[in-house]
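User: Predict the complex with S-adenosylmethionine.
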Amino acid sequence: MSDVLDEVRDHYRATGLTEQLKAALAVIGPESQRLTPQQLAPLDQFHTRGLAATIELAKLAEIDAGSLILDVGSGIGGPARFLAATYGCQVTGVDLSEPFVDAARYLTDRTGLSRQVSFQTASALELPFGQGRFTVVLLQHVAMNISDRVQLYREIRRVLKPRGRFATFDVVANSGEPHYPLPWARTRATSFVLSATATRKAIETAGFRTLAWQDDTEAAKVWFAQLRASGPPPAPNLGTVMGPDFAQVAANLGRSLLDGRVGILTAVFEAAQIHT
Ligand SMILES: C[S@@+](CC[C@H](N)C(=O)[O-])C[C@H]1O[C@@H](n2cnc3c(N)ncnc32)[C@H](O)[C@@H]1O
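Assistant: Here is the predicted structure with S-adenosylmethionine placed in the model:
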């Protein structure tokens, strides 16, 4: 793997995460108690606006019981479990971080969803699947860690069936450098935000047609303002996963949005009929 991928993986290297989660989740109930995706949402929806954003993206992507979903950069699996529990569909997640994949499997077991949801450690730039395997690919708050967008979107196109949908929810560049450290990168060395226009061009070049295109920056600003006023949710939350300074790091994203340095984009694309 490249040096940059190693650095990104280090950022999400939460050693001993599963054991920490086991201990932290004791406040909700004993190990034998089944958990719901809603109970886990404060800690396993690792993106702006949390579960609300996943709910909206799923609707926009027209997910249903027959969807075969790949969640690229699936984190500790919150979006994958929510979709499987809500729609009854099958979801596969891939993520660069082995501790995240291990934690995702543990949490999936705790929610009783292991027959519908599975996870693998892999790079988004080299997806371990054959051509045309999925009907929907999700990418939520991952692209900003990936410099080779041509390869990323080509890989997503390759594993989608013709007319399959690609739903993305990501941070995009506006004007000026964002305030570091950020939830996805402590420095600019592992942050690769692209403008919304450049993102659309890269995706369409990979063989996609745009179906939906939404600037969600204002909704994200409102959400960060509410978070600032109310403080982080009670533990366990994303601080349990990313460390005690996570609330301050997340606040830097809120500040970068307010200052107009970055924006939030939601978009859905359809895979062209012919493989490129
Ligand atoms: C901010 S988290 C978002 C996790 C998840 N999508 C969610 O919304 O809950 C970014 C995730 O992308 C993963 N990631 C970053 N670069 C990746 C790559 N090249 N291949 C696979 N996963 C990657 C990280 O390991 C991390 O789990």
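The longest helix spans residues 217-230.
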